[in-house]
Every structure is written in C-alpha cells, then in structure tokens.
Task: structure prediction
Amino acid sequence: MKILYFASLKENLNTSDEDFSFKSPVKISTIKEQLIQKYGEHHFPKNILCAVNQEIASEDTLVNDSDEVAFFPPVTGG
Result:
C-alpha cells in the first residue's frame, strides 16, 4: 500500500511517500505502530490525522493493500 506524508511530517521524514505491505485488511492503528517503530513516536503523536483514499479515517479504519493512506500533522490556526 502507498503511504503518503504531508507538511512538516514530510519534511521531518525526508520523504513524501513509501510503499508498505501488510496482510489485508489492517487497521490504521497497526500501520501507525509500524511507522512508530521505524521513525519514532514523536513523528506520529496521538493527534496525527490520517486519511484513506482521500477521506478522513480513524484508528479503527480497515485498510486494504490497494488503498492509499496519508498522514499529516494537525493544522493550527492563528
């Protein structure tokens, strides 16, 4: 599956995307755990936003190997 990174997350990881392979279906929370192991928890805090196929998703959303998953930090306004 294609994992996309946006905004400061993209800058901090030095990549905009990568491919991962999981047994389908898999929960977003499981994907997030793997990314935390690879990059560290500070890049994937509890309030990080996630989208599956361009629709906002929750930690319990099931994802298939053909789906596109995007992570982006929460946006703050001022």
Remarks:
- Residues 28-39 form the longest helix (12 residues).
